[in-house]
Write a structure and sequence with these properties.
Length: 430
């Protein structure tokens, strides 16, 4: 199948060819014709499947088809809501890239950027808005934008919007849209909450499922390293140095943890930047830019900050901490092995995280292969050996916070020779 066969016009075909795309991805093959027909779509597609183009290309075509070039100011006819600023930036860039030969104007409306500039741009008029919900509501309250002409609404990464508590904002925005419109909902996973939300906002939708639900990309090789928490950083430095990895996205649980790990890796001589929600937008953009251009080889990120990052052919993802929400494992792994390239996803799992690992494997319905010899004293990842986080003790009724304490250092050290070998490798990596 080709993009021509999907019924896209010449201006879009030219833009797509300039992106280097030859064949439409499965989600594009399925969703584009349906959206062009005007159908509402509920698509289960994760990042990396080409989902952005699958809604942006037909959206551009439909809006261009009946665009009035004399309409002044331009009216917002396409609205794309996304959960994070980073994703907004990427979708915005995609809309510009794919729509470069069409007379449509797009604006991005996100928190963390100057509201004054956005206000000016919105008042000047545009055809498409890519927005995070909170900032869009600010503009709606200030009457900087009118959504009563929206013809197509896209909710991208709806599951994440739900997780992040954006649904009340989304509903408020939707109450200002015309009832008669086309709505498209994209979600990496489609839990029941999303299904029931979808049934309330979509009109007789067609369901498009690409990657099997709760599956990870086939071309990602996954492994679990069972390791005591205190040696995770050392093992990570060793893996990066000894394999000479040039681009690694490392996930941590907290912002503080991201800053700490960034500092430690830099001390180990590894070029590293951190990305998390406490950083200014400028600092986030800089970290991302450095990572994309190879100025740093490691980006340490929290889940929210990393959501939607689109880095071509990211080869390595490391879960330094396992995610709290099992679905996030799938999102994280979705960073690698994108659009046909292969990737490697490693999880450094300490016994205190055995429960999280068990929940992830339950969701995946399979076991992630374990690395037999990590070079460190083996640790148990059996849930039976670790009390569940904050579970009250059967006898005393007291909650167990043991996992939050610094684990014992006894019995987990690697042999001295092994540690020396690692120090040498690390130095070699500088
Ligand atoms: P997405 O799932 O929208 O985040 O897209 C993931 C990556 O796939 C992006 O880098 C896109 O530029 C790329 N991509 C999208 N469609 C295609 C295609 N048909 N062929 C090759 N790469 C694509």
């Amino acid at each position: 199948m080709t993009f021509e066969q999907l019924g896209l016009p010449g201006q879009l075909l030219k833009a797509v060819a300039e992106q280097g795309y030859i064949t439409p991805t499965p989600v594009q093959q399925k969703a584009i014709p349906l959206i062009l027909e005007g159908r509402d779509v509920l698509a289960g597609a994760q990042t990396g499947t080409g989902k952005t183009a699958s809604f942006t290309l037909p959206l551009l075509q439909r809006l261009a088809e009946n665009s009035d070039p004399h309409q002044k100011p331009r009216r917002v006819r396409g609205l794309i809501l996304v959960p994070t600023r980073e994703l907004a930036a990427q979708v915005f860039e995609s809309v510009i890239a794919y729509g470069k030969y069409l007379p449509l104007h797009v604006e991005a409306v996100v928190g963390g950027a100057s509201i004054g500039v956005q206000t000016r741009n919105l008042r000047r008029g545009c055809d498409i808005v890519v927005a995070t919900p909170g900032r869009l509501i600010d503009h709606l309250q200030q009457r900087n934008v009118n959504l009563s002409n929206v013809e197509i609404l896209v909710l991208d990464e709806a599951d994440r919007m739900l997780d992040m508590g954006f649904m009340p904002d989304v509903r408020q925005i939707m109450s200002l849209l015309p009832k008669q419109r086309q709505s498209l909902l994209f979600s990496a996973t489609v839990p029941n909450a999303i299904k029931s939300f979808a049934s309330s906002v979509l009109n007789n939708p067609v369901e498009v499922e690409v990657a099997k639900q709760n599956a990870t990309a086939d071309n990602v090789s996954e492994r679990v390293y069972g390791i005591s928490r205190e040696y995770k950083r050392e093992l990570l430095s060793y893996l990066i140095g000894s394999n000479n990895w040039q681009q690694v996205l490392v996930f941590v649980r907290t912002k503080h943890g991201a800053d700490r790990l960034e500092k430690q890796l830099i001390e180990d001589g590894i070029r590293t930047a951190a990305l998390h929600g406490d950083k200014t937008q400028g600092a986030r953009n800089k970290a991302l830019e450095y990572f994309k251009t190879g100025k740093v080889s490691v980006l340490v990120a929290t889940d929210i900050a990393a959501r939607g990052l689109d880095i071509d052919e990211l080869p390595h993802v490391v879960n330094f901490d396992l995610p709290q929400v099992p679905e996030d494992y799938i999102h994280r792994i979705g960073r690698t092995g994108r659009a046909g390239s292969s990737g490697e996803a490693l999880s450094l799992v300490c016994p205190e995280e055995a429960w999280q690992l068990a929940e992830i494997e339950k969701l995946l319905k399979r076991q992630i292969p374990r690395v037999a010899d990590t070079g460190y004293e083996p640790v148990s990842l059996k849930v039976a050996d670790v009390p569940k986080k904050n579970t009250p003790d059967k006898n005393t009724g007291k909650k167990d916070y043991r996992h939050t304490k610094k684990p014992s250092t006894r019995g987990a050290k690697p042999a001295q020779g092994e540690r020396n070998k690692r120090s040498r490798v690390k130095k070699g990596a500088r």
